[in-house]
UniProtKB/TrEMBL annotation:
Key word NAD present: yes
Pathway: Amino-acid degradation; L-threonine degradation via oxydo-reductase pathway; glycine from L-threonine: step 1/2; Metabolic intermediate biosynthesis; 2-deoxystreptamine biosynthesis; 2-deoxystreptamine from D-glucose 6-phosphate: step 3/4
Residues annotated as binding Zn(2+) 2: 93, 96, 99, 107
Example of a GO biological process term: L-threonine catabolic process to glycine
Example of a GO MF term: L-threonine 3-dehydrogenase activity
Family assignment from sequence similarity: Belongs to the zinc-containing alcohol dehydrogenase family. DOIA dehydrogenase subfamily.
Official protein name in the record: L-threonine 3-dehydrogenase
Cofactor comment text: Binds 2 Zn(2+) ions per subunit.
Enoyl reductase (ER) domain: residues covered: 12-338
Lineage of source species: Bacteria, Bacillati, Actinomycetota, Actinomycetes, Kitasatosporales
Function description: Catalyzes the NAD(+)-dependent oxidation of L-threonine to 2-amino-3-ketobutyrate. Catalyzes the oxidation of 2-deoxy-scyllo-inosamine (DOIA) with NAD(+) or NADP(+), forming 3-amino-2,3-dideoxy-scyllo-inosose (amino-DOI).
UniProt keyword Metal-binding present: yes
One Gene Ontology cellular component: cytoplasm
Length: 342
């Protein structure tokens, strides 16, 4: 089969022929239809410092996908050939304290699809049945391909009660945009998003945010004045991993404000801990999705009319992967999709 492979310890990916994956008694074989390019894939392609530490070559990359089941192991129940599915990309041990308590997203032995084992940028991918999400209600293929990052957005946006609250989102990348759409749909009063890319801020306006701020030109405090906020934001969603963004969040929260932080910083940075203490601010780190409560919420949100189509801005044949990766790395658009059906 054809697959995108990190063949050697060097920049770039190669489209090449590799053996089809084999499945065990508890596994599912899936024909891949569409995939989404993630920031993790960009790191692996660029072969940066993180990738050099985390990746063993050769490796089939990719973890965001939708496909059709074409085979199941003998012990698999409730998943059938022909089912349309997406996959939870965190494979957990099932035996540690957190797994046994139902907190599988906190498993200390997590293995990432397309990071620690061969992934989904291929014509076929194999997954344990326990990691397969069957779409019971029809979902647009492009949207189904990005259920993994959509789950990150939902997990972050719904970390705290959001109805009637004023929400500040720092970072209008694809997950930040999806989080903004979720917050609006879930009943936030005001949703403000910040970035320095006018192209991405324009996407946020299409989603329907209350205010899209270019923080290179306008401060968050000035944004508060535009909306008539007197005490600051109730909830902050940090999606950028940038120190200046986190500082903006802390400085513009009300007393008792809450921050859900998904953005992954590239290095340590200082924040105003005195402000955090005296304003009684709660900070929650978010990684991945709650299995499978977040997935249920994702499906229900889409059934309820949540529209993610503005977030998807690039669609490519998988053989055009170089152009697709360049688009995704450009930092101006939303999600980029690779079509494996052509």
């Amino acid at each position: 089969m054809k697959a995108l492979v990190k063949e050697k310890a060097e920049p770039g990916l190669r489209l090449m022929d590799v053996p089809e994956p084999e499945i065990g008694p508890g596994d599912v074989l899936i024909k891949v239809l569409r995939t989404g390019i993630c920031g993790t894939d960009l790191h692996i392609s660029a072969w940066d410092g993180w990738a050099q530490q985390a990746i063993a070559t050769p490796l089939v990359v990719g973890h965001e996908f939708v496909g059709e089941v074409v085979g199941t192991g003998r012990d698999v129940e409730d998943i059938a050939v022909g089912d349309r599915v997406s996959g939870e990309g965190h494979l957990v041990c099932g035996k540690c304290r957190n797994c046994l308590a139902g907190r599988r997203h906190m498993c200390r032995a997590t293995v990432g699809l397309g990071v620690g084992r061969d992934g989904a940028f291929a014509e076929y991918v194999a997954l344990p049945a326990t990691n397969v999400w069957v779409h019971k209600v029809p979902v647009d293929l492009d949207v189904a391909a990005i259920f993994d990052p959509f789950g990150n957005a939902v997990h972050t946006a719904l970390s705290f009660p959001i109805v009637g609250e004023d929400v500040l989102i720092t970072g209008a990348g694809p997950i930040g945009l999806m989080a903004a759409a979720v917050a609006r749909h879930a009943g936030a009063r005001n949703v403000v998003i910040t970035d320095v890319s006018e192209e991405r801020l324009e996407l946020a306006r299409k989603i329907g945010v209350s205010l899209a701020l270019n923080v290179a030109e306008t401060t968050v405090a000035e944004g508060q004045q535009v909306l008539g906020l007197r005490e600051g934001f109730d909830i902050g969603l940090e999606m950028s991993g940038r120190p200046e963004a986190m500082r903006d969040l802390i400085a513009n929260l009300t007393n008792g404000g809450r921050i859900a932080m998904l953005g992954l910083p590239s290095q340590e940075f200082a924040v105003d801990w005195a402000k955090i203490v005296t304003s009684m601010i709660t900070i929650k780190g978010v990684y991945g999705r709650e299995m499978f409560e977040t997935w249920y919420a994702m499906s229900v949100l889409l059934e309820g009319g949540l529209d993610l189509s503005p977030v998807i801005t690039g669609r490519y044949d998988y053989r055009e992967h170089e152009a697709a990766f360049a688009d995704a790395a450009g930092g101006r658009g939303g999600k980029v999709i690779l079509d494996w059906t052509v």
